[in-house]
Amino acid sequence: MEQFIYYWRRLLGYLRAGIYRPTFGQLGSKVTIGHRPTLKGTRFIRVDSDVTIGDDVVLTAWHVLSNPPIITIGSGTALSRGCHITGANSISIGKNVGIAAYVLITDNAHGDNSYEQMQISRLLRPVVSKGPIVIDDNVWIGEKTTILPNVRIGFGAVIGANSVVTKDIPAYAIAVGNPAKVIKIQHE
User: Fold this and answer.
1) Which of 129, 154, 126, 132 has its CA nearest to residue 141?
2) Buried-most residue among 2, 38, 62, 158 (CB within 10 A)?
3) For residue range 63-77, what is the model confidence (pLDDT) as tens digits?
């Protein structure tokens, strides 16, 4: 029975992808989209083949800056339940990246943290981005992690659960904490 449910959910995921395909900038083959996605600005989102987008995932691209946003997701990548990816600048996720449940990846915020901006209602503050996000191939991002703007996570890195990534993480590093700090770099 479990196997039947697995294949049934997979089939529904393929069917959902087929329904949403015309709205995306690119949606590769063998993509599955889970139950209850929130998808906005999909014309600015490019998804390669063999990508799994889990239940309750939020993918939003906001054209509010001078240049249009771009979100790319490489082949073999998996976005688990409740992931939230929001871009106004550029978010590039490599191939074979594992993103655990409830991860937030955002390259933007409502206003900066200046005194003048803080006097304005958050809804009236302009959307700003401090820079793009790049996540290289074969990265693992643990549950409930937050990745903030102007960050690069190197090839094969592992980000521990509940971490907040505020600066670059080198290739093959293991990083944990708030803010995330490198605790080990794997070598040959």
Assistant:
1) 154
2) 158
3) 998 999 999 999 999
11: Cα within 13 Å, side-chain hemisphere: 6
- Neighbour count for residue 131 (Cβ, 10 Å): 13
- Which residue type is seen at 141? I
What residues have CB less than 8 Å from 177, skipping those under 6 apart?
160, 163, 164
Contact 178, 162 (CB under 8 A): yes
State yes or no: pLDDT of 188 exceeds 70: no
- Give the alpha-carbon dihedral of 158, 103, 165, 96, to 10 degrees: 40
Residue type (1 letter), 132: P
Active-site positions read: 110
Round to whole Å and give the CA distance between 59 and 34: 12
